[in-house]
Design goal:
This protein is mainly alpha-helical. The protein has a domain at about 50-275: f41 fragment of flagellin, N-terminal domain (Up-down Bundle). Helix content is about 65%, strand content about 10%. Strand 4 and strand 5 (about 160-165) form a beta hairpin. Helix 1 packs antiparallel against helix 7 and helix 3 (about 105-125) packs antiparallel against helix 5 (about 210-225). About 25% of the residues are buried.
């Protein structure tokens, strides 16, 4: 087969363009730090990279959920700790007020402090995190606990439902089934949900055993000044309620510890998937620099050889 000058020039231009394209590819890798420009360069690697990116996106969302859940539990623990302190102080005052050496005036003075504790207990029961009520179940926008009058009697309300009659402790409202069953859950893993909320009805109780109602009953007994039996009865209820609050605190502590372990595992998984993605996408700069220099040498050699292949023109002879 006869080789013509145009064939040699055409082949030369193809080779030069191929060498230049190789240099351009290495330059892109150095500039971006990424191996691939198009999926067709490594279909299998792109698939692994996309899978790693998807898992990383999920893990990062799970970590955000875990952080939010942990902050919620921290606020819950703060509120429960405050309630426990209030119950402890009310217990001390009740024991002091039950002393036979106290006059009615002394007990009324103690009652005024109990009243302040009662008001603070209501505030603690309406604690919020990031504008959301932590003891309100699905009701996260409005204060769940309120003290309101109805038909001439004072009631403690929870999410619009009467849970304790403060005026007449012997006549308590019937609490509908399902009150307090609402729980807020966070997804902190693939198919893994954690209940991080506590119902205010579970925390404070209902009826005569409601913490606020016990405080109110103690307040009334102290204001009466002479009924030590009611004060003694309040002491027993306060002891029981303190144990309940401590039980809730232990539950919160256990969930917080579990969240810490889950966050550690999520961080390790994130590192693993980041390494997988980096192995597929990221370049080895030292290797790419060496390959770029070799491609540059080949490109310059092809230019040098091409200058000898192209035939001189008449102008070259006239110089």
């Amino acid at each position: 087969m006869r080789v013509t000058n145009s064939m040699m020039i055409s082949q030369l231009m193809n080779n030069i363009n191929r060498n230049l394209k190789r240099m351009e590819n290495h330059q892109y890798q150095l500039a971006t730090g990424k191996k691939l420009q198009r999926p067709s360069q490594d279909p299998v690697g792109i698939t692994r990279s996309l899978q790693a990116r998807t898992e990383l996106s999920k893990l990062q969302q799970y970590k955000r959920n875990a952080d939010d859940a942990q902050a919620w539990l921290t606020q819950t623990e703060t509120a429960l700790t405050e309630m426990n302190s209030l119950v402890v102080r009310a217990y001390e005052l009740a024991v002091d007020g039950a002393s036979g050496g106290k006059t009615p005036e002394d007990r009324q003075a103690i009652a005024r402090e109990v009243e302040q504790l009662m008001n603070q207990l209501l505030e603690a029961s309406n604690s919020s995190y990031a504008g959301r009520q932590i003891f309100g179940g699905y009701n996260t926008t409005e204060k769940p606990f309120q003290v309101r009058m109805d038909e001439g009697q004072s009631f403690l309300w929870y999410n619009g439902i009467k849970i304790a009659n403060l005026t007449d402790p012997t006549s308590q409202p019937a609490v509908p089934d399902g009150v307090g069953s609402e729980r807020i859950e966070y997804e902190i893993g693939s198919g893994l949900f954690m209940d991080i909320s506590m119902s205010g009805e579970d925390v404070l109780g209902v009826g005569n055993d409601n913490v606020y109602a016990v405080f109110h009953e103690l307040y009334e007994a102290l204001m009466d000044g002479t009924d030590s039996d009611r004060i003694d009865e309040s002491i027993g209820k306060l002891q029981f309620q303190q144990q309940e609050i401590l039980s809730h605190l232990a539950e919160v502590g256990g969930k917080t510890n579990r969240l810490t372990l889950i966050k550690t595992r999520l961080e390790m998984d994130e590192m693993n998937y980041t390494e997988i993605k980096s192995h597929v996408e990221d370049v080895d700069h030292e290797q790419v620099i060496m390959e770029f220099l070799m491609a540059e040498m080949v490109y310059r050699s092809s230019l040098s050889v091409g200058a000898r292949i192209i035939q001189p023109t008449l102008l070259d002879f006239l110089r």
